[in-house]
Every structure is written in structure tokens, then in C-alpha cells.
Amino acid sequence: MHKKRLVFDVEFASENWDEFDEITKKDLLKRAPEKKEDPTGYEKELEYVKDQLVFSPLTGFIVAIGVFDIDSGKGAVYYQDPTGKQTDIEEGDFKYVPMTEEEILIKFWALAETADEFISFFGRRSDVPYINIRSAVHGIKPSKDLISNRYNSSKFTGALHWDLAELLTFYGTAMYKGSLHRWCRAFGIQSPKGEMDGSQVGEYFREGRGLEIAKYNVEDLKATAALFHKWDQYLRERN
Predict the structure, then answer these.
(1) Three-state secondary-structure class, residue 229
(2) Judging by DSSP bridges, how do beta strands 60-69 and 5-14 pair with one another?
(3) What angle (nearest 5°) sits at the alpha carbon of residue 113, between those of residues 110 and 151?
(4) What are 192-211's pLDDT values in tens digits?
(5) Coil vs helix vs strand at 231
(6) Does position 33 have pLDDT exceeding 70, yes or no?
(7) 81 CB-near residues (< 8 Å, 6+ apart)
(8) Whole-angstrom distance, CA of residue 31 vs CA of residue 220
(9) How many helices (DSSP H) and strands (DSSP E) are in the chain?
(10) At residue 62, what are phi and psi to the nearest 5 degrees?
(11) Is the pTM of this model over 0.85?
(12) Which of 109, 119, 169, 178 has the most CB atoms in a 10 Å sphere around its CB?
């Protein structure tokens, strides 16, 4: 029986700092020096905290989730459109569908239910925990466990999740690490990082450029799929 293998990638953005209540701001800045005593140090810590908001599902949210069937070559990106003007479109092998965050998560878990294997880059530590928490915030239960079974044991009856960031560093035992861009560069794969990268997602979203974020997500999906093929062909151990 043919197994369905799904590459996935997530884009995040942070909430607006000015919209946080004062207790939350105080909590986030608990390590900052007193503003009156050390204004420079306070501002430095404030900027650092603002930059880190996106990495937590408590202070950030999902802008887009892209999925790519590695065998059929078909995919889709479900994304938030802050302008409310975008409609469903299809370009090449990818569909772009504007949705709310809740709708994106419902769609992702529905697709996950039909897949047997999942492929990501840094998904086990970043994307999946984020997806799980944001799903719970919306009262949505995950359809698959994509965090457990880190070493993809054949004894585990659930889904397999191939996280390339772990696989290519031999689960952290190697002395090196690398971003998706650096891995692509080393393997001669076209990097998804060009005019845009993940650090700009929040800025693009606030500017109403949701579709551009979705198209950037597609490049991440393609690069991750190509990198998976390299690992699968040359580094994967087979009995």
C-alpha cells in the first residue's frame, strides 16, 4: 500500500506589542533594568523581547501553513489575508487559499489525518508544538501525534515525522548545525531565502501582503522536499 508523505511548513507572526495589557508587558520585561536607571539597557531589552514574541504561541499566531505531497508534486498553502480581498487561486501545482487561523488549523489536521509520513525542517521543536498550542487555543484537537517517536521507531504505530534539522545533525550529536539556507547551499539546492525570509513575515503581514507570504512558504516546501530526497538517497539507513 502506497504511503502518503506530506511536507509541511509554518509561518508565524507576533501580536502587536501596543495591544498587550500592562500585566503581560511587565511579565515579558521582568528581566529588563529599570527604565529610569538604565534607559539604554531597558530599550535594548524591550527590542529583544519584541523580536522574540513571534517564537511563542502565547504571543504569536500562525499566518500560513503549507503542505506538499512529495509524491504527487501537488501542494497548497492556507494563509491569513489581512486585507480580506484575496480569493482562492491556483498557480502551477499549488493552491493558495485565504483562511482564518482557526480554519487553517482545522484544514491542516484534516489533511494530516490522511497522511502516513510527515517531513519538515525543524518541525518537531518549532512548527508542531506551535501548531498544537494554537490548535488548543481554538479548541481543536490534533489528529496525529507529530512530536513523539523522535527516532521513528517501527514499533510506533502512529505517523512518522522526518525532521531534517534533526536527521542531518544526527539528532544533535554532530558538532555543527545549519539553517535551511545553508543546507540548501551545501547540497546545491535552490534556497528559498531571497527577497524575503522568515524574519520578515510579521512585517509583510502587517503590510497586508499575505499572498506573498504564502508564495514564500511554497519555496520553503520545495526546498525541504529537495533536501529530504538528498537525505533519503544518501544518508538514510535501510535494513
Answers:
(1) helix
(2) antiparallel
(3) 130
(4) 987 788 889 999 999 999 99
(5) helix
(6) yes
(7) 98, 208, 210, 211
(8) 35
(9) 8, 7
(10) -90, 125
(11) yes
(12) 119
